[in-house]
Structure formats: structure tokens, C-alpha cells
Amino acid sequence: AYEIPRVTGVQTCDLPICGELALYHGKVKKAVTGDKLKQFGSLSRVEEQTKFVLGLPGVEGPQIEVSTSIRNLEKAKEYKETGNDFFRRNMFQDAFKNYTLAIQHCPVNEAAPEDPGNKDYSIMFANRSAAFDKSGLYEACIHDIDRALKFGYPRQLWYKIYKRKGHACIKMRQYIVARAARSEERRVGKECRSRW
Q1: Which of 47, 72, 75, 176 has a CA 20 to 30 Å removed from the CA of 14?
Q2: Nearest alpha carbon to residue 27 among 50, 60, 64
Q3: How far is CA 4 from CA 15, 16, 43, 46, 57, in A?
Q4: For the segment 102-141, what is each residue's pLDDT rounded down to a tens digit?
């Protein structure tokens, strides 16, 4: 288990502090000096340290606002189409960046991956896997293919991503997995030709 280290003095951080947090940090720094700094340093638990800082006179806690969700199907589809445009122009890094934004914005039911409402989400993963494949990022490609399948990628298109998975596995010298993927590609391809 991870343990928070005991604070024995002022700790520094490499991260920039800005905005309201910078103002709050300045107030706390001014208030915790001398004996109060020693008292703070003697506290071993984060809960005690937090109570101590929030109890300082003249130091109000930072205001925290809950942000709204960025999940928006229209915006996700815009990013996907932009990704598709970049892909068609062989600009694969720009494509996978836009597919990533599409995935981040796309509504998804994580609790029920088989939910038909996850179809767009799964397609965005499949599209990003193609951009990763073309960029030589084979491990990321395979990960996205597995996510696409998990979230209901349309069965009649499975042959495409199994072929891609086989290609990525070959590039990674995972020949047994590649063979299984290519077998699945052929099986699904036959099934699709007979059904659809």
C-alpha cells in the first residue's frame, strides 16, 4: 500500500501553481510560519494536515466547482470526421489525435459494454486503431481493437479489425496471436459473406 510521506518541513513541487490555487497557496504560506510550521510538520496524517490548514484564521479553502461532462455525441462525431479527413490524407498522427478527442467526447455506457448505444464509441476505437497501425504504434493498435470489440463493434465489420490485429501482431512478432486473429478474420469474413 502507498503511504503518504510524513511532512517534516516545507515541501516543494515542480508543478506550476496558478489562478485561485496560487492565491490560496500564498495565504497558506504566510499563515504557516514559526511554531505553526513546526506544529504542521508534526502531523503525520493527511487528514490532520488538511484540518490544520483549513482551520487557519484568514485562510478560506479554495472554491471548487464541478465541471459538466464533455460527453457530446455531435462533438464526438465532428472530431471523428476530422480524424477521417486526416486519415485520408495520410496524416496519421493528426488522425489519431482527433480520434482520441472523439473517444473522449463520445457518450458511453462503461457499465454495460454490450449496450447498442456504444456503437459509435466502438467505431471510434476501430478508426483510431487504423491510425495507430499506419503510424507503427502496434501495441496501441491492438489495445484499441480489443476496446472496439468489447464495446460492440459491428459484427459485419469484424473481419477488418481482425485483419488489422493480425498485421499488428506480426509486426510485433506475436505470431501465435497473429495467426488466431487472421483465422478469426477468415471465419468472420465467410460468415459475413453468407449473411449480409
Answers
A1: 47
A2: 60
A3: 18, 21, 12, 8, 26
A4: 999 999 999 999 999 999 999 999 999 999 999 999 999 9
Nearest one of 66, 13, 67, 2 to 28, comparing CA atoms:
13
pTM above 0.70, yes or no: no
Give dist(CA 82, CA 162) in Å, integer.
24
Asked if 31 contacts 59 with a C-beta cutoff of 8 angstroms, the reply is: yes
**Residue corresponding to grid cell 494536515:** 49
- Please answer whether residues 162 and 146 qualify as being in contact, where contact means their C-beta atoms are separated by less than 8 angstroms: no
Q: Which residue in the block uniquely carries the three cell numbers 501495441?
A: 139
Query: Left if phi > 0, otherwise alpha if psi is -120 to 50, otherwise beta: which for 43?
Result: beta
